[in-house]
């Protein structure tokens, strides 16, 4: 880290030593006198000559003044020299216009001498700025080291952040902030604020292009951060996302891993989970099941509904409150459907087993009261010469029912989920459910 900061400061040293860019040539301002005074021209020429004599860069330039118009001739080694001279002459009182006839010198020796002089000037400035460079490097190194020390305080960050992912993000933010502050302070001590603006502009353009190129990655990062903060589900919760249902194993920076009820692993990207409609079947332990029961449309529907409600109320795994419900839902030419529902507590009861057992008990109760499932009716017309009475068809009797004794959750599947949840340090979910 210190080596990288030293390289940046070394690159910034020549920039800090350079003189500011010359000003843009100015056009003489003010009113033009109607009198053509030769004495005024001589005064202007004398003033310009004294200016040219004081600046070594203007040694190869001569001036002539006629009616307030200044004509410059000669040779220079840099075009910036002419621009600087025009800026100075535009401020001389009485100058109407400046005619530039100065050319760049083509003499190799003169150009080399000019390059040598500029190099010596800048080298002198760099040497003079070495103490400031050393001071900037020292201050920047202290800031970087302090930021690195703070980012490695894992216990302190763990006390602030709710999970390891946020703690790691805070550590990276501290390190990056320390680097930026160190660079700003070091360049400011060296007087290279222009380079600082260039670097910040380049960083902004790079960040903008990176955001478009890595949009999915950034979206997944933000989704992971929000999910780890909001905790919409806990470990071992039964959730459903986009038609995929399973128990939550872990939430990592790459995705959320589910274990389906068939024992398959599913990893869903976090950005999909954050934007999708998520159903958590475990967050509320009380859950209602629904079963559909078909009976003969000619039966007493009110009494059949009472039988269903009484049977539901007598089931030991069905909660008393909220109360069970039952209503007539659909009527067809062959049957009527009674839709029945009851609430169970998922803390000690398996939902699917409870629903299946409730259907078995309700069907048995209705059959015992004579509310049988209507058989399909087919009307067949037979024409016979010798009619004989066919024997009456007898309906087969239902075998005796056997009560399902165990309606608890599948212990083997719960153990499978716990084995899959062996902590590897990457899980961002809270290990204990919230109250």
Structure description:
The chain is α+β, with helices and mostly antiparallel strands. The chain folds into 4 domains: 31-126, Histidine-containing Protein, Chain: A (2-Layer Sandwich); 130-213; 233-283 and 409-435, SH3 type barrels; 286-374, Alpha-Beta Plaits (2-Layer Sandwich), CATH 3.30.70.100. 47% of the residues lie in helices and 17% in strands. It contains 13 helices and 11 strands. It has helices at residues 2-17, 38-54, 79-89, 108-128, 130-151, 154-160, 164-190, 193-213, 215-230, 270-275, 301-313, 351-368, 411-420; strands spanning 61-66, 69-76, 97-104, 238-241, 244-251, 256-259, 265-268, 278-280, 286-295, 325-331, 336-345. It has a 5-stranded antiparallel beta sheet. It has a 3-stranded mixed beta sheet with strand order 1-2-3. A 3-stranded antiparallel beta sheet has the order 9-11-10, with helices on one face. α1 runs antiparallel to α5 (130-151), α1 packs parallel to α7 and α11 (301-313) crosses α12. The longest helix has 27 residues, at 164-190. The chain is elongated, with a radius of gyration of 45 Å. It starts with a helix and ends in a 15-residue tail after the last helix. Mean pLDDT is 79; it is low at 13-24.
């Amino acid at each position: 880290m210190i080596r990288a900061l030293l390289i940046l400061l070394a690159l910034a040293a020549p920039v800090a030593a350079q003189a500011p860019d010359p000003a843009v040539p100015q056009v003489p301002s003010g009113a033009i006198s109607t009198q053509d005074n030769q004495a005024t021209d001589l005064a202007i020429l004398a003033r310009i000559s004294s200016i040219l004599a004081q600046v070594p860069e203007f040694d190869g330039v001569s001036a002539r003044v006629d009616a307030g118009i200044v004509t410059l001739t000669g040779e220079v080694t840099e075009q910036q020299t002419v621009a600087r001279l025009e800026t100075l002459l535009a401020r001389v009182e009485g100058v109407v216009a400046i005619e530039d006839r100065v050319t760049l010198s083509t003499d190799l020796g003169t150009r080399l001498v000019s390059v040598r002089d500029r190099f010596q000037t800048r080298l002198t400035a760099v040497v003079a700025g070495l103490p400031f460079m050393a001071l900037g490097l020292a201050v920047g190194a202290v800031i970087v080291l302090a930021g690195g020390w703070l980012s490695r305080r894992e216990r302190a960050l763990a006390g602030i952040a709710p999970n390891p992912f946020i703690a790691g993000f805070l550590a990276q933010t501290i390190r990056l902030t320390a680097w930026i502050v160190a660079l700003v302070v070091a360049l400011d001590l060296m007087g290279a604020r222009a380079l600082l603006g260039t670097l910040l502009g380049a960083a902004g353009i790079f960040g903008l292009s990176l955001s478009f190129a890595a949009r999915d990655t950034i979206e997944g990062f933000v989704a992971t951060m929000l999910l780890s903060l909001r905790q919409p589900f806990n470990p071992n919760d039964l959730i459903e996302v986009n038609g995929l249902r399973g128990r939550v194993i872990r939430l990592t920076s790459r995705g959320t891993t589910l274990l389906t009820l068939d024992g398959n692993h599913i990893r869903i990207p976090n950005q999909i989970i954050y934007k999708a409609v998520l159903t958590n079947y475990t967050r509320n332990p009380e859950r209602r099941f629904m079963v559909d029961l078909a009976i003969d449309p000619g039966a007493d529907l009110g009494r059949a509904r009472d039988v269903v409600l009484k049977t539901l109320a007598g089931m030991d795994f069905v909660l008393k409150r909220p109360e069970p419900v039952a209503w007539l839902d659909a009527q067809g030419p062959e049957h009527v459907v009674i839709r029945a529902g009851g609430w169970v507590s998922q803390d000690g009861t398996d939902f699917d087993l409870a629903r299946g057992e409730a259907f078995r008990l309700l069907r048995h109760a209705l059959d015992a009261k004579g509310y049988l499932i209507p058989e399909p009716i087919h009307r067949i017309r037979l024409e016979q010469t010798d009619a004989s009475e066919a024997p009456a068809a007898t309906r087969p009797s239902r075998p005796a029912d056997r009560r399902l004794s165990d309606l608890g959750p599948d212990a083997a599947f719960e153990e499978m989920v716990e084995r899959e949840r062996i902590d590897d340090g990457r899980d961002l979910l809270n290990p204990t459910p919230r109250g």
